[in-house]
């Protein structure tokens, strides 16, 4: 079922070779002269062309760090001490992203992989018009092997703006502050797609936006994905948004992926207590009122992780064994193209999350 | 806690009877901000009431006037028109003692727990300051005891481990609980919660709402609960009422269960349609763009003629909606909707019903 | 020494907000980690201690007509002045007034600036407008000329009067920056929360808002000391302050007038007090710089 939704979006999905293959990626922040902490602790996943993967979790679980690490945009004190990232670009040749030099890396970003950050205002230069900023992005790169001409730049910018449902005549000559938050976010999406990247990473692209604006962006992203067929990684703390935009979900906790699966598997049958807890903490707007509960406690500090399962202090399924073993992802249901349902919990068979309804419909 | 509020005769019987004096009544309040580029009517002619122990949710997008309305209710800004009455008395014509009584009985919980706590005050100092200032505590030991009790009320246990902490040593959720404990310190009758859960992680939001719900039940505190998230309004205000605001006006107002589960105003419908659902099957049923004709909110400086929602409204009828502004009118027994088309259709349905009954 | 301990004590209590940002470890231990800050602190403490203790221990330098302008020797390490007084003794005893006036004037300036600045910003309205007018006037008049006129008008024979005069004339700049900070702080939600709890206006201004600027005030207090010291020395050099008693300012003035500059044997009479002032100012500036770095996380490189 999940595969069909995915393949419907993209008919030429290549289920053989992943577009991005991440193995045991570790992202480390130096916190002092001899101290460090690992914000991402050994993450592996394969992303196949045309897929949309949602990374979900609470703040501080490492999802944004992972997003930055995937594009090698880590701050000065961050590094990738181990792991590998293989990306298959437009020319179908695999690239080791961690080995790219500065110039190659700069070309690789934008041309092959792009990122849209949260807080659209900070991503713009406030004194340049939108048109100039879009042109600057394109001028720095070759398109089809040549420097783009002025007309090409203008055409492409206008095309991308129209694709995100903005009127180029109105937007191109505007300054960032003249646009609303939702428009700015859409301009950013348009800019990120200027060079037809194969992979688009979105970091909380709709936080701080109003609900109707958010809906507009969700719509635009759905349309774009259908038209352009790029692969997407979507970082969010809002599970409902993940349910709408993704066909795969990876739940992160304390720097690790602790559950993966198709949207349907994850939301209807979560097997890690943390995913179940997250889902059970989201009030629904349709139907009856369920009895909801928060996950007790807060995420552990990455600097002082206890032995064993990092979630055990907050877990209602925890037992003595959890203090000993830090469980690996275990196969629950094997599926094609990275859609397998896996969970890192020794008690996954007991995890279930039926929603109790407290009040009947009025 | 010195004499719990629930012993108050007014709040002991639950609010459903509308004949008692409402705890808070906003009658025809407007707030027009004068700017160099002309007047900006942030709120226009809003009428709302909250009874003791009742929850009123204000929902809408940013700029719809919900926060401005709440600030007027809290007496933080004076309405340019209309009256704010607390226990039946206009707060802006109160004498000093009455105003102090109002001021301490109506508390506000801000959105950002990082900004609303003084960074240089410990939790104990933060909570005990109002107790001491208003003579509710006798000496240090008593302050400490009361502060502990307040922390227990907001589920920060054991209180001893929080009292000496500073805001930066706590998580967002813990800070917001401290802000609530501080608001509770003066035994308020009404708490205005302005997006109080929107900055918290999804995983702890519900715990906060459950805690606030318990305060409402145990202490009989009334709430004006402001949120842009209809799912949150539904969850917290299930037994209360909800007012949907758009460009400074209330467009739909009624029991939460009716407003959210059976929305009538096209704007409410669009909002509800736009809420993402944590369920892939439901998510697939969403209408693009919430079913609206335009995604852009008009500026307050240049409000559309007639019904301000008409440029975006899927039910728009030329010559009607762009000419006259609809009044809130009763649809059903307890819900009011400001929409020409909905009012007409429901009138027709009612007429049909009466015809079929009589015939 | 008493002065020094009082000073470090106020450092510790008044900068809660700073301590907060440096995670529990005390301000003093933070200071010792920064080499220049610690050096600055040591310099300031040593000079203050010396100037306070010396007048109690070291007897007054006796004029000796046989020893005029004698160069450095084992008896007189820095030589003697035009009346045969030992320059080392003069330096040791001559810091008290300078330091007293510097601290006093800075204290007064800071107090006036904090009180007026925060109240003006909190209340706005007419009080604010009038205060701004006054600062405009005071700031446009060159301070040294104003000091000269005031010095000529009033008898400035006590250090209190000097401190008061300098203090009263130098608050406007600090007042404006305090005012600007309060204007932004008072919009913070915790201030509104305090208003909603009806905590009382003065309490809100001085207990909720002002302590949030503690580090800013402390740093500006130190800067005010340096400014007041310069103003005082300037007055002495120009001969606007009474020339009685021992102090570094009078020494410079005296040395200048008697042409000590041009004689290698007497050069130290002018260089020694100048060096003392420079070292003290340097210490204060180093101290304030590293305090700024410690207390303002944005300046800290992390």
UniProtKB/TrEMBL annotation, chain B:
Q: What are the BP-aspect GO terms?
A: peptide transport; transmembrane transport
- GO molecular function, one example? ATP hydrolysis activity
Region called Disordered, residue ranges: 1-22
Keyword Phosphoprotein applies: no
Fetch the Pfam families from UniProt.
ABC_tran (PF00005), oligo_HPY (PF08352)
Indicate whether Protease appears among the record's keywords. no
Q: Which residues cross the membrane?
A: none
UniProt keywords, alphabetically: ATP-binding, Nucleotide-binding, Transport
InterPro entries with a match to the protein in the record: AAA+_ATPase, ABC_transp_ATP-bind, ABC_transporter-like_ATP-bd, ABC_transporter-like_CS, Oligopep_ABC_C, P-loop_NTPase
Which part of the chain is the ABC transporter domain?
27-272
Q: Which NCBIfam families match?
A: oligo_HPY
Which family does the UniProt entry place this protein in? Belongs to the ABC transporter superfamily.
Give the protein name, as stated in the record.
Oligopeptide ABC transporter ATP-binding protein
Supply the source organism for this entry: Microlunatus endophyticus
Automatic annotation (TrEMBL), chain C:
Subcellular localization: Cell membrane
Q: How does it sit in the membrane?
A: Multi-pass membrane protein
Q: Could you tell me which Gene3D superfamilies the record lists for this protein?
A: MetI-like
Q: Which UniProt keywords apply?
A: Cell membrane, Membrane, Transmembrane, Transmembrane helix, Transport
A GO molecular function held by the record: dipeptide transmembrane transporter activity
Family under the similarity heading: Belongs to the binding-protein-dependent transport system permease family.
Q: What is this protein called?
A: Peptide ABC transporter permease
């Amino acid at each position: 079922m999940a595969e069909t939704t995915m393949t419907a979006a993209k008919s030429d999905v290549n289920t053989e070779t992943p577009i991005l293959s991440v193995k045991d990626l570790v992202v480390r922040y130096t916190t002092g002269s001899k101290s460090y902490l690992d914000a991402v602790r050994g993450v592996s996943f394969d992303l196949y062309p045309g897929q949309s993967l949602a990374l979900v979790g609470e703040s501080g679980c490492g999802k944004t760090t992972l997003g930055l690490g995937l594009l090698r945009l880590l701050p000065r004190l961050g590094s990738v001490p181990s792991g590998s990232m293989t990306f298959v670009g437009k020319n179908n040749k695999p690239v080791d992203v961690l080995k790219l030099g500065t110039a190659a890396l700069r070309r690789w970003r934008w041309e092959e992989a792009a990122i849209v950050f949260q807080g659209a205002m900070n991503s713009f230069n406030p004194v340049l018009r939108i048109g100039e900023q879009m042109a600057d992005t394109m001028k720095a790169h070759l398109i089809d092997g040549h420097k783009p001409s002025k007309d090409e730049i203008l055409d492409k910018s206008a095309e991308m703006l129209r694709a995100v449902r903005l009127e180029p005549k109105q937007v191109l000559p505007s300054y960032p502050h003249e646009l609303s938050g939702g428009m700015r976010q859409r301009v950013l999406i348009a800019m990120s797609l200027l060079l037809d990247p194969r992979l688009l990473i979105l970091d909380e692209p709709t936080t701080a936006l109003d609900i109707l604006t958010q809906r507009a962006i969700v719509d635009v992203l759905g349309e774009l994905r259908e038209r352009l067929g790029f692969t997407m990684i979507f970082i969010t703390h809002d599970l409902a948004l993940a349910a709408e935009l993704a066909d795969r979900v990876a739940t992160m906790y304390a720097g690790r992926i602790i559950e993966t699966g198709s949207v349907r598997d994850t939301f209807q049958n979560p097997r890690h207590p943390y995913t179940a807890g997250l889902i059970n903490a989201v009030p629904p707007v349709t139907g009856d009122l369920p009895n909801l509960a928060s996950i007790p406690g807060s995420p552990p500090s990455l600097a002082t992780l206890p032995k064993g399962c990092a979630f055990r202090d907050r877990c209602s399924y925890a037992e003595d064994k959890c203090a000993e073993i830090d469980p690996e992802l275990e196969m629950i249901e094997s599926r094609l193209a990275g859609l397998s349902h896996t969970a890192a919990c020794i008690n996954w068979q007991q995890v279930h999350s039926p929603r109790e309804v407290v009040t009947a419909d009025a | 806690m010195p004499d719990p509020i629930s012993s108050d005769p007014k709040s002991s019987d639950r609010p459903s009877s509308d004949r008692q004096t409402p705890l808070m009544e906003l009658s025809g309040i407007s707030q027009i901000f004068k700017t160099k580029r002309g007047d900006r009517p942030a709120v226009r002619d809003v009428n709302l009431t909250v009874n003791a122990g009742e929850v009123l949710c204000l929902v809408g997008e940013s700029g719809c006037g919900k926060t401005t309305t709440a600030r007027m209710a809290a007496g933080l800004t004076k309405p340019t028109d209309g009256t704010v009455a607390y226990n039946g008395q206009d707060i802006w014509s109160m004498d000093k003692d009455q105003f102090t009584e109002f001021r301490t009985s109506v508390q506000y919980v801000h959105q950002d727990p990082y900004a609303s706590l003084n960074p240089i005050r410990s939790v104990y100092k933060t909570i005990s300051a109002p107790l001491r200032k208003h003579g509710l505590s006798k000496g240090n030991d008593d302050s400490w005891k009361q502060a502990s009790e307040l922390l227990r009320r907001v589920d920060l246990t054991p209180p001893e481990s929080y009292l000496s902490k500073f805001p930066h040593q706590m998580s967002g959720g813990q800070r917001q609980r401290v802000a609530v404990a501080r608001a509770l310190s003066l035994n308020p009758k009404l708490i205005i919660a302005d997006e109080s859960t929107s900055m918290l992680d999804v995983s702890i939001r519900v715990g906060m709402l459950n805690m606030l719900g318990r305060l409402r039940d145990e202490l009989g505190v009334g709430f004006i609960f402001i949120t842009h998230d209809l799912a949150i309004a539904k969850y917290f205000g299930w037994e209360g009422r909800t007012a949907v605001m758009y460009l400074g006006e209330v467009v739909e107002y009624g029991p939460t269960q009716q407003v959210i589960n059976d929305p009538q105003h096209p704007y409410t419908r669009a909002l509800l349609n736009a809420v993402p659902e944590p369920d892939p099957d439901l998510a697939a049923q969403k209408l693009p763009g919430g079913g609206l004709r335009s995604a852009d909110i008009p500026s307050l400086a240049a409000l559309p003629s007639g019904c301000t929602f008409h440029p975006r409204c899927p039910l728009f009828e030329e010559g009607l909606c762009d000419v006259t502004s609809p009044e809130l009118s009763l649809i059903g027994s307890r819900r009011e909707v400001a929409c020409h088309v909905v009012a007409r259709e429901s009138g027709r349905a009612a007429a049909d019903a009466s015809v079929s009954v009589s015939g | 020494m008493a002065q020094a301990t009082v000073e470090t004590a106020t450092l510790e209590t008044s900068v809660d907000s700073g301590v907060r940002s440096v995670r529990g470890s005390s301000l003093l231990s933070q200071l010792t980690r920064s080499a220049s800050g610690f050096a600055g602190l040591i310099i300031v403490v040593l000079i203050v201690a010396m100037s306070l203790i010396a007048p109690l221990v070291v007897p007054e330098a006796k004029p000796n007509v046989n020893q005029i302008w004698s160069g450095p020797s084992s008896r007189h390490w820095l030589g003697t002045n035009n009346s045969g007084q030992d320059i080392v003794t003069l330096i040791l005893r001559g810091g008290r007034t300078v330091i007293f006036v510097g601290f006093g004037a800075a204290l007064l300036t800071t107090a006036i600036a904090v009180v007026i600045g925060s109240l003006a910003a909190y209340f706005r309205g007419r009080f604010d407008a009038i205060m701004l007018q006054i600062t405009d006037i005071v700031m446009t008049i060159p301070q040294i000329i104003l000091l000269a006129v005031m010095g000529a008008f009033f008898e400035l024979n006590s250090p209190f009067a000097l401190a008061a005069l300098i203090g009263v004339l130098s608050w406007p700049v600090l007042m404006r920056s305090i005012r600007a900070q309060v204007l932004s702080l008072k919009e913070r939600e915790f201030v509104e929360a305090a208003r909603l709890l009806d905590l009382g206006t003065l309490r809100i201004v001085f207990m909720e808002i002002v302590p949030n600027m503690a580090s800013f005030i402390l740093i500006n207090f130190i800067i005010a000391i340096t400014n007041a010291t310069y103003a005082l020395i300037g007055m002495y050099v120009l001969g606007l302050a009474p020339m009685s008693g021992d102090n570094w300012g009078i020494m410079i003035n005296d040395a200048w007038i008697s042409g000590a500059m041009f004689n290698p044997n007497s050069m130290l009479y002018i260089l020694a007090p100048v060096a003392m002032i420079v070292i003290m100012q340097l210490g204060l500036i180093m101290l304030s710089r590293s305090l700024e770095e410690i207390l303002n996380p944005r300046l800290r490189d992390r």
